Amino acid sequence: MKRRPFILFTMIALTFSLGLVGCSRTIDDIAKWQAKGDTEKLMKALADPKTEVRQGAATALGELKAEPAIDALAALFNDAEESVVLASVHALAAIGTESTISPLIAALKLDYPRARNTAAVSLGELKAVAAVAPLCEALDDSDETIQCNTAIALGRIGEEAASEALARKLSSRTERLRLECAKALGLTGGEVAAAGLTGALADSSGTVQKAAIASLIALGKISEPYALEALRDEEKATRKGAIAVIKGIQAIPLVGTNAIWYNLAKVSVDTSDAIDSATVAKLAKMKGETATLVEACAHEVADFREHAFRALETIGKPGAAAAIAAAKNGVSGNAASWYKARQQWEGNPSWLIDMWAALTALNPDFEIDTAKLAAMYRKGRPAFTTIVSPDFTPSREYIPALIALLGDETVPPPEQADYDAEGMPVIKKTIDRFRGEANQQMAQTKLIAAGELATYPLLAAIESKNELVAGHAADILGSLGEKRALEPMMLVLGRKIAAGEELSHSPFYNALQKLDDPAAEPLLLKVRPNPDRAMHIFERTYAGVRAISAETQDATGIASQPIGFRLGYINNGKVGEMEITFVKDASGDWKPTPALPDSL
After folding, report:
1. pLDDT by residue (tens digit) across 223-245?
2. What is the pTM of this model?
3. Can you give the three-state secondary structure of 179-213, one letter per residue?
4. Distance of alpha carbon 185 from its chain centroid, rounded?
5. Cα(294)–Cα(231) distance, rounded to whole angstroms?
6. In Å, how far from its chain's centre is CA 492?
7. With contact defined as beta carbons under 8 Å apart, do 149 and 117 qualify?
């Protein structure tokens, strides 16, 4: 009797339990309810104790785009199972309406990276403006993929408010993130975006650089001032990118300061270190921009300095004031003392020297070995040893000292007597037999090698009171074919002619012949010809015939008397000879007399 109640209770409990099992949901139920579109039962299934049922129900509701289930799905964010949380976030993303924005924003804070990633992508697809601030925070996510997809999302939303956060990430160590941020900034826009993208033009990744260029072009007019400013950047990649942007937005400057920097930037990114004469000519035409050209002479980029320097030399005296003003407070150290010493240079005072020295001293890479410089100014053997050394380069810093060596008249001391006053043999000391002519010749060689670097101080040196220096300077400029030397050399030669000097072998006379300019011909006619002049007149008369020698026939040696030459020449492969006599006519011109025949 006592066992019956226990048996009855057990049977009732078993029956109840079996009933519950019979009512439990399954995956098949989820599929059936999804097929019928029964969102009510699916929503109830979100509370099922079975993980797979909750997960399946969430997925089904997402596929059905069941907006009434949004809150219930969001409630699953607290589920203990990651798979269920992921299913709920995916479902909200699938529903994809404005009502899902708030829960998706909340999902950006979930513990599971895949859930956060889905939320970020979905918010971008929804162009959820309200999500900009939370997405900007998500750029700091610990997961790189989430960071990148967040940047993409912000780009899709396209709100300027995101630009600052995106721009900050352009300095990330992750190339992929920098790339996506560069792309996104082209869509979010604004001043901050343009500034950040300009900085990215020099990114270590070429892919990021290209993305930055494309985005700046996409931003259009707002990029213009940033790209123009970037033209003068020290980084070659930045300048190159800025040029591409300016071309892309069709904002190439044709005049003014920006045109100077644009042309300098263009020539600085080519593959050649040589001076581009076309660029120099273009810059020289912008005579109203001398201050900008002077500024460029103080730039870190060598191509800027050299092209601006040459342009200012082409412009000439109008650029001197700006150069001198800039050097007044813009140079220091060795450059300042070197610049101050110009007052002792050959040919000074001269605006040529003032301008050239100022521009040279402004160079931030100004470098001079004071020991070498001191040795050069000592002249003699110390100078020669210095300038023939393999490590000596005739840079601008040393040009004035080289010009000074053109006048080196060092002579060895007189020979010592074999016996002293008392008739005793003298023990002779070793004497350096060095002569200054060696320095003159070597300095001339070095200055010719320096070429245009030495043009201005050589032009000034033509007026040096030291005849050796002035003559060598004229000879060098004539050898270089420097047309700017024509006028000053004509002035000097004219003064010498007026003074009645004998100039047949004057370096000024020879240099003007080398320049071969018709403007000098009236002066050259006033000088008694030398062999070079005779050969020049002959070749000018007979085009295509080459004079190979000119033997002087000067019977009297009197400077006012006629002078003859026996010329050897080659014409059509055959050697010939001709005698030419020059006579000074009534107007003081030396001309062939009789006149040369029309043909040989």
Report:
1. 999 999 999 999 999 999 999 99
2. 0.84
3. HHHHHHHHHHCCHHHHHHHHHHHHCCCHHHHHHHH
4. 26
5. 16
6. 41
7. yes
